[in-house]
Design a protein that fits this description.
By secondary structure, the chain is α+β, with helices and mostly antiparallel strands. It has helices spanning 2-21, 48-54, 59-94, 101-143, and strands at residues 28-33, 36-41, 44-46, 147-153, 156-162. The chain has one domain (2-162).
Length: 163
């Protein structure tokens, strides 16, 4: 008898947890790593422009993501420019040329400036995605509430959850 009560409570907690934390196929997420950022809708990789299209229905979220995209483009331009300046001087140092270390220092400075802009992009993009997902979750939860049914069936107690 104790085992069946434990199993029932475990199943009930499991169903409630997953109904509350289930991820909708419309939800967006951003995954960042050393090589860049990827945006996903469900399990599908989408571009930043597709993310903006998804957010077009809500003006404040759309504007926040648009600002994030502007920061992203600006940080990429600065980072690439600084990387080019440093790389050019390192190539000159490896080759038989005379490197201009002041120019390499300028390149490092530009790279350092691009880092906080990139961090700002990630903060804005995550905030926009979280806001978007909250609006999706709140609209879906009104329409698709799970139905719980507890009754007798077969050889004992039956618990059903329908989504």
């Amino acid at each position: 008898m104790k085992l069946s009560k434990f199993f029932f409570l475990y199943t009930l907690c499991f169903a409630i947890y997953f109904s509350a934390h289930s991820q909708h196929t419309d939800s967006l997420r951003m995954q960042s790593n050393f090589f860049g950022n990827k945006f996903f809708k469900g399990d599908t990789i989408i571009s930043v422009n597709q993310v903006l299209e998804e957010m077009a229905s809500n003006e404040s979220i759309y504007n926040l993501m648009k600002d994030a995209k502007t920061d992203f483009v600006f940080s990429q331009i600065l980072g690439a420019t600084g990387g080019f300046l440093v790389g050019w001087q390192l190539a000159a140092a490896v080759g038989s040329g005379e490197p201009n270390w002041a120019l390499a220092g300028v390149g490092i400075g530009i790279i350092v400036i691009s880092i906080p802009i990139s961090i700002n992009f990630k903060k804005k993009a995550n905030e926009a995605i979280n806001r978007y997902n909250r609006t999706i979750t709140s609209s879906n939860s009104r329409n698709h509430k799970p139905m719980y049914n507890l009754g007798f069936g077969g050889n004992g107690l039956k618990f059903q959850v329908r989504f």
